[in-house]
Amino acid sequence: MNTTTTDRTAPIGIFDSGVGGLTVLKEILELLPFENFVYFGDVGRTPYGGRSKEIITQFTKQDIAFLNEQKVKFIICACNTASSTALPDICKDYDIEIIGVIEPGAKAAVKQTQNGKIGVIGTNATINSNAYASYMHAIDPKLKVFSLACPLFVPLVEEGYIDKEATYLIARDYLQTMKDVGIDTLVLGCTHYPLLRNVITDIMGDSVRLIDSGEESANESFRRITTTELIHPNGSQVPSPEGDLKYFVSDVPEKFSSVASRFMGREINNIARVDISKY
Amino acid sequence: MNTTTTDRTAPIGIFDSGVGGLTVLKEILELLPFENFVYFGDVGRTPYGGRSKEIITQFTKQDIAFLNEQKVKFIICACNTASSTALPDICKDYDIEIIGVIEPGAKAAVKQTQNGKIGVIGTNATINSNAYASYMHAIDPKLKVFSLACPLFVPLVEEGYIDKEATYLIARDYLQTMKDVGIDTLVLGCTHYPLLRNVITDIMGDSVRLIDSGEESANESFRRITTTELIHPNGSQVPSPEGDLKYFVSDVPEKFSSVASRFMGREINNIARVDISKY
Description:
279 residues; 4-stranded parallel beta sheet
């Protein structure tokens, strides 16, 4: 990696299979408001979670190629599926630093657990990759890690089924095993899952600590950027001027615009479309 | 259209956004067992139902281009989303006959209704297109057509949530309006929905007739093929030899293989992968 020649005024790139990564963007914006950001949401090919490793890797490479064309200085892969299934094999192929959500989420969980029993929930691809468990075991081989795919959580969140009885029933089906084995820490291994925090807490009980891997990766990115030569020169100004935000999507921008405005709590109009299959 | 020069031994092409179209293939195989078939399932980009008209049209054109390269003699678009959102604008651009699922489903419903009140359920894109209602009104402008998107039905079916309490609760949420307005006929405007037939009948009652648009389009294709010069010469042999079946998908074949074997009730191994973004 060659950070010394990097243009520190260049934007930070964030990508996700869809809109979920906006929660990570929102977190990091609070920490680094003076940085410029480029967000790419692959809404034209979302969701990644049920696809094969091969195609997730192909999509992830295209997402990174697009951000590199935008001359970003640092990349955050906000998608758990891409972070777990594609990144470990491909991130060494790039000069630019790319951070995923697995390592920060796993680290936080290992730090948090007291009884050594950690649960991980995510999409089929994230769970099949075993990435969270592998990383946790690299830190401490004695940990007991229980991983479970919850494929209905994403569509339930996207349809606004947040506090409904049906969602509780489905969440109870999924999470009963996690209760039975007595985990004390549960990693929300998908950017959509924090929206079901209330349902999950009701089922698991207050004693189980929930880890939001998106939040953890925003914190980790903040640490890496502020401790390297990557930080924008405006960061040293008081008050620092606000950075630019650019949004790109792989389907028409209209639908993304309304969802993104809701996620970000501000009107978002400057969204451009990208034909991502060309990258 | 120029059917007189068509090679009658050429295969019939069927495509869908994923696996749902296999139900249509199964129906038509029983009617035309001596024909050759090529099935394409766009599992690498499924589902289509929540995407924009623009991208659904782009995907549909690529699906048709692939089948044309296979030199098919007739195309069945088994996907309701593609049939309603893309086909009406593009099918005139092709020499080959392309049949969608909307027209056959709409016709069957109009024939069936006695009180003139018809319900249509489907994906967001299918309902937004208003294709079923437009076609029904072209037949009889006095019909009252009530259209409703049920976006959670596809993931529920794909996760095997067929007879669960959560599925009943969600279906009741969706279908209550249809009960209130007193429809006597309900079009299942998505190839996944017939798998929820029991749940839907329990909620709507036995007096509401369900129309399976996939089944209707298989019947309609049978009529068109047998009444034109398209029928395979083997059809006149008794007993007629069985035709060939070829399967193509846009992600790795392994997962499709197990689902397809279940749908078709026979072991399916001859599945090839296609990079559909190149078409």
